[in-house]
From TrEMBL:
TM region(s), chain numbering: none
InterPro entries: FA58C, Galactose-bd-like_sf
Organism name: Actinoplanes xinjiangensis
Stored Gene3D superfamilies: Galactose-binding domain-like
Origin: domain of life: Bacteria
Residue intervals of the F5/8 type C domain: 134-248
Protein name: F5/8 type C domain-containing protein
One Pfam family from the record: F5_F8_type_C
Length: 251
């Protein structure tokens, strides 16, 4: 029996070693709204389920219609350690609505994430409907979209300390009617002075704020059609004296 078993073991192919890394992706499906700053995060989790440290990679692939902030996650995992890495996923204005799939591979494991793309609903604010979001400059840690992502905990900052003025701008392909602008700045080192400008063949100042110390200020003005709204920043409340906007809301 022992000889027979040994012969059988020699003839049978060896089973592959179990993959030391377990892959999960959250959420399991992702609804996306088109627009330059309407991206959402996927969380790619790599867990080392072996008893030894390993390098772990995860590769993301997606249709050209989707924009992935990164296509490779690579990390060192001590034994028993799990790391979750956020990956920003977006769909540009004009992306055809429909169903897409992002594939995530790590070793022998893979996860498919269904993505549903849709245009912003009519009831969404003008900031969500913006087709362009630009600024005079920015810092890698505080990118442009951080002032138009609906999250007041993040903020845009310019890249030129103590150099004024700066500007932050929303654009639309077709005219919109604007009559109110809300500017939210960080509680520390927020904006002090700025002008609200709308485009009507040239930039026209429709409201001005001076001596601000609040985190949110509202500027109202007679309704007018425009294809762009700009905040012209003029001064801040210390802390390296640069422009910081946490949220810009136009209505």
């Amino acid at each position: 029996m022992n000889t027979t078993a040994a012969l059988l073991c020699a003839l049978l192919p060896a089973l592959p070693a179990p993959d030391p890394v377990h892959l999960t992706v959250n959420p399991h499906s992702l609804p996306l709204t088109t627009g330059p700053c309407n991206a959402r995060n996927l969380s790619v989790r790599l867990a080392n389920i072996s008893g030894r440290p390993v390098y772990a990679d995860a590769e993301l692939t997606a249709p050209k219609a989707l924009h992935l902030q990164r296509t490779l996650v690579s990390t060192w995992l001590p034994a028993g350690y799990t790391r979750a890495v956020p990956v920003r996923v977006g769909a540009a204005t004009g992306t055809p609505p429909g169903a897409y799939v992002i594939r995530v591979d790590s070793g022998s494991r893979h996860v498919d994430v269904p993505v549903t793309v849709a245009a912003p609903p009519p009831a969404a604010g003008l900031t969500t409907h913006a087709t362009g979001v630009t600024a005079a400059s920015f810092r890698a840690a505080n990118p442009i979209c951080d002032a138009a992502d609906g999250d007041p905990a993040t903020f845009w900052s310019d890249g030129t300390n103590r150099y004024w003025p700066d500007w932050y701008q929303l654009d639309w392909h077709t005219p919109v009617t604007a009559s109110r602008v809300d500017v939210t700045t960080p509680a520390e080192g927020g904006l002090r002075d700025w002008d609200v400008q709308v485009w009507a063949g040239d930039w026209q100042t429709v409201a001005s704020v001076r001596g601000n110390s609040a985190t949110t200020r509202t500027s109202e003005f007679p309704a007018r059609p425009t294809t762009a709204v700009r905040i012209l920043t003029l001064a801040a409340n210390g802390v390296n004296d640069l422009s910081r906007i946490a949220e810009l809301t136009v209505s």
